[in-house]
Amino acid sequence: IMASQRILKSDLPLKGIQRLREEVFGHLPQLNIRTGNKKLKVPLKGNYVQRYYPESIEASARKATPGYQSALEERRTAKLEQLRRRGKGPPKKGSGKRQQKK
């Protein structure tokens, strides 16, 4: 009986030390189950990705200069003008094939 009490008494400080160590160093008790803490410890990537893909100047350029068009928009409008001159452009709203059938 005395030996078992000694074991229990000697275990108490050890458990207290382990609990304190877990709090101080941020260790979790070993439960042998997956917790996902490894993934949570990895630093976030959002800032790096945001720096890699900078914001385009389109929005600020539109505010600063009225009538601003990007290179892609200019190409699209030029192509539409060419198609309309040849009569191949998109029909006006409400004057497509379906409207002509009615």
Protein model, in words:
The protein is built from six helices and no strands. It has 102 residues and is an all-alpha fold.
Q: What is the structural class?
A: mainly alpha
Instruction: Name the helicity range.
Output: 55-70%
Number of helices: 6
Low-confidence stretches: none
Taking all Cα atoms into account, the compactness measure Rg is 35 Å
Largest sheet: none
* Mean of all residue-level pLDDT scores: 82
Work out the strand percent: under 5%
Order of helices and strands: HHHHHH
Termini separation (Å)?
Answer: 102 Å
Tertiary shape:
elongated
Q: How many β-strands, per DSSP? A: 0
Structure, briefly:
The chain has 102 residues and is mainly alpha-helical.
Top keywords for this entry?
102 residues, mainly alpha
Topology diagram in text:
Elements: H1 2-25, H2 37-41, H3 46-52, H4 58-64, H5 71-86, H6 97-101
